[in-house]
Each structure stands twice: as structure tokens, then as C-alpha cells.
């Protein structure tokens, strides 16, 4: 069943799902939508990107997408990623972030309660077989043996579902979506006033 796709003003979108579900792929595509610049960190390893659609409020894409694997998982410690979300919301920016490491951290519901702004969790429903293939292809592209630890991906699926449940209980909007639906929601966020 397809989710109702609606984004409210001053929103945070958080993409969750197992390795290979398409979280980083969708986040990287945000950089194709409007001019952007690396933000914080340094040019080669930024903590995020400020995406500036002409005439609209900026969108802060949290994470480093200069490597084949990326996202908030590249920001250590994870509290630094949350600090970036806090700072962006304080400036009135919209925020997109993702990452298995951030999702496994217990602070998501606390941060949601602290910020008090609309927060949309998109739980990607990518089939596990597709996730396995994507991880193997990514490893092969990096010159590594395309071995996939299926149990890790399966465990991350369970963690994703558990995280989404905790966020729903905390009051966030949680939608189970496929990649195309997630991309549509991200485009809506970037294009809203």
C-alpha cells in the first residue's frame, strides 16, 4: 500500500532502511536539484551540503556524499550529526538526513521532542534481494570482493523498523515508502516555500 505523500513546512526528512535500500542514493540526488555548496567540515569531507533552490529556503543535506558510501554514517561521533540538524532547524532551514548509524542511535525520539517541528521518517521498503545486490555492486565498484553479509543487512532492516516505531510513538510521521515515493517526497521538500 502506498503512503500518503505530504510534507509540511519546516520539515525534517529522515531516510531509514537497511544497507543498499537507497538512502544515500536518494540523498545524493538532492544535489542535482539545485545549486549547493559543502557546509562545515572541509571541502573534501564536509559534514553536509547547503542546497539553495532559487527563491526558496535552503535545505541542509546532512552527511558526506563524496564517497560511494556516505551519509551521516561518515560523521563521528553521531551527536555531531544531531548538532547539525539542530543548527539547521534553528536557522529555519529544511533538513534531509539518513544513515544506518544515526538510525541505530537512541537519540532520534529525544531530538524530535526537543525540536518540536514536523519530522517525516521515510522507511524504505526496498526488497532485501535488491539491497543485497546493491551492496555487492557498491563493494565491487570500490575494488573489494563483492561479499555481502546478509545477516547485517537483515539486522539493519529490523533496526530500521524498530527505529521507525519509536519515532512514531514519539509523534513523528512515519511512512513506509519505496524509492520512487521517497524521491517524490524529497523533491516536494526541496521545492516548497
Structure explained in plain terms:
- With 193 residues, the protein is an alpha/beta fold.
- It has one domain (12-191): Rossmann fold (3-Layer(aba) Sandwich), CATH 3.40.50.
- The chain is 42% helix and 17% strand.
- The chain has seven helices and seven strands, in the order E-H-E-E-E-H-E-H-H-E-H-H-E-H.
- The chain has helices spanning 23-30, 78-90, 100-104, 108-115, 128-141, 150-170, 179-191, and strands spanning 12-16, 36-39, 48-51, 59-62, 94-98, 119-124, 173-177.
- It has a seven-stranded mixed β-sheet, sandwiched between helices.
- The longest helix has 21 residues, at 150-170.
- The relative contact order is 0.23.
Attribute tags:
193 residues; alpha/beta; Rossmann fold; 7-stranded mixed β-sheet; 42% helix; disordered N terminus
Q: List low-confidence stretches.
A: 1-8
| Proportion of residues in helical segments | 40-55%
Mean pLDDT, all residues: 83
How far apart the termini lie comes to 29 Å
Domain count: the total is: 1
Alpha-beta classification: alpha/beta
The ordered string of helix (H) and strand (E) elements is EHEEEHEHHEHHEH
Globular, elongated, flat, extended or rod-shaped: what is the shape? globular
- CATH class call: Alpha Beta
**Radius of gyration using CA atoms only:** 16 Å
The proportion of strand residues reads: 15-25%
The name of the CATH topology is: Rossmann fold
Main pleated sheet: 7 strands, mixed
Number of strands: 7
Q: Total helix count?
A: 7
Which strand order does the major sheet show?
2-3-4-5-1-6-7
Just name the CATH architecture. 3-Layer(aba) Sandwich
Amino acid at each position: 500500500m502506498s503512503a500518503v505523500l505530504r510534507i509540511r513546512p519546516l520539515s525534517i526528512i529522515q531516510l531509514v532502511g537497511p544497507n543498499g535500500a537507497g538512502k544515500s542514493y536518494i540523498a545524493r540526488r538532492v544535489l542535482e536539484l539545485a545549486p549547493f555548496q559543502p557546509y562545515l567540515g572541509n571541502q573534501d569531507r564536509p559534514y553536509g551540503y547547503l542546497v539553495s533552490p532559487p527563491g526558496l529556503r535552503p535545505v541542509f543535506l546532512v552527511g558526506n556524499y563524496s564517497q560511494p558510501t556516505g551519509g551521516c554514517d561518515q560523521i563521528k561521533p553521531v551527536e555531531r550529526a544531531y548538532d547539525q540538524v539542530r543548527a539547521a532547524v534553528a536557522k529555519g532551514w529544511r533538513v534531509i538526513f539518513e544513515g544506518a548509524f544515526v538510525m541505530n542511535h537512541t537519540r532520534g525520539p529525544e531530538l524530535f521532542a526537543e525540536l518540536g517541528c514536523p519530522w517525516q521518517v521515510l522507511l524504505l521498503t526496498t526488497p532485501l534481494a535488491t539491497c543485497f545486490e546493491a551492496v555487492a555492486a557498491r563493494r565491487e565498484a570500490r575494488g573489494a570482493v563483492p561479499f555481502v553479509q546478509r545477516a547485517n543487512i537483515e539486522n539493519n532492516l529490523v533496526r530500521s523498523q524498530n527505529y521507525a516505531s519509536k519515532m512514531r510513538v514519539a509523534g513523528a510521521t512515519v511512512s513506509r515508502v519505496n524509492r520512487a515515493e521517497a524521491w517524490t517526497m524529497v523533491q516536494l521538500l526541496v521545492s516548497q516555500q
